[in-house]
Specification:
4-stranded mixed beta sheet; 3-stranded mixed beta sheet; CBS_dom; 22% strand; single chain; globular; alpha/beta; CBS domain
Length: 139
């Protein structure tokens, strides 16, 4: 059985909810990623911040990214998956909620992220095509 841990990109890092968006952008650059899970004070997932969120939700709105926090941008119910979950469960979670990135949790700690690139490396062409149809066609 292939698990979430088998296909995830390890070493994902949180951005604390109190950190500003300019710091989040710097961390994204350092890590070469386009999204960061947002952690509350108890290191629990409270959202995901994307580079697009920073540009569209802050900069394009005329706000100062040094004054807006990651927590300010956290909206909705964050989705995640346990590291031992089957890849079918991963695909279902992403398809059901039309999400392109999924944090992987083990013992209540962030251990990785699953992105489109991870799926492309580990899925068959048919599985990937079905995932794309479900996530993008309904968007």
């Amino acid at each position: 059985m292939t698990t979430a841990k088998d296909i995830m990109h390890p070493g994902a890092q949180w951005i604390p909810a109190h950190e500003t968006l300019d710091r989040a952008a710097q961390l994204m650059r350092e890590l070469n990623v386009g999204a960061l899970p947002i952690a509350d004070a108890d290191e629990r997932l409270c959202g995901i911040l994307t580079d697009r969120d920073i540009v569209v939700g802050c900069v394009a709105m005329g706000h100062d990214p040094s004054k807006i926090t990651a927590g300010d941008m956290a909206r909705g119910t964050p989705r995640w998956i346990e590291s031992g979950a089957d890849v079918g469960d991963v695909l279902h979670e992403m398809q059901e909620h039309q999400i392109r990135r999924l944090p992987v949790i083990e013992n209540k700690r962030l251990v990785g992220m699953i992105s489109e690139a991870d799926l492309a490396q580990h899925l068959s062409e048919d599985q990937l095509a079905q995932w794309v149809e479900q996530v993008y066609a309904r968007a």
